[in-house]
Amino acid sequence: MGSxxxxxxxxxxxxxxxxxxxxxxxxxxxxxxxxxxxxGITGPDVCQNASDFTLSDTLGNTVTLSSVxxxxxxxxxxxxxxxxxxxCDMHMSSMRASxxxxxxxxxxxxxxxxxxxxxxxxxxxxxxxxxGSGFTVLADTNQAxxxxxxxxxxxxxxxxxxxxxxxxxxxKDGSRLRSVLAALP
Length: 185
Hints:
With 185 residues, this protein is an alpha/beta fold. Helices cover 34% and strands 21% of the residues. The chain has a domain at 54-182: 3-Layer(aba) Sandwich (Glutaredoxin).
């Protein structure tokens, strides 16, 4: 029995020895190591100008971000990146029920970056119950928009009517999204 305990102890030591730099995690420096964000330039971060893009919606129409953002009466645009998974469905259902109806001057775009074609994105939109939902579903067939916003599943972006990014984070419960939308000029 003693040799089993010794072997487990050695195994634990070997595993811990493989955690090089572990002390940095135990005693962090407290420094923010993210790059500094420069406001007013084109980029995906809050206070930067959103990169313009053109994608097809699921009906084959061409949608350009700049034309959506600058449409008369539009105070802002929400972009949500979906994989059509259960988590994305939960997020989009939450938006559809409690956010979309309360912000009629905000456009809601859903970017499908996984289906690979407009036809497949349309199929996913229909089979998941989002046809006619108030969302405009866009097909990012080469994931260019996904890359330009440094997005992933669940990333939610808010762009104001001047084209400035006001929010870029993963969707959680919608409370922060609501507060950003309420503060739009």
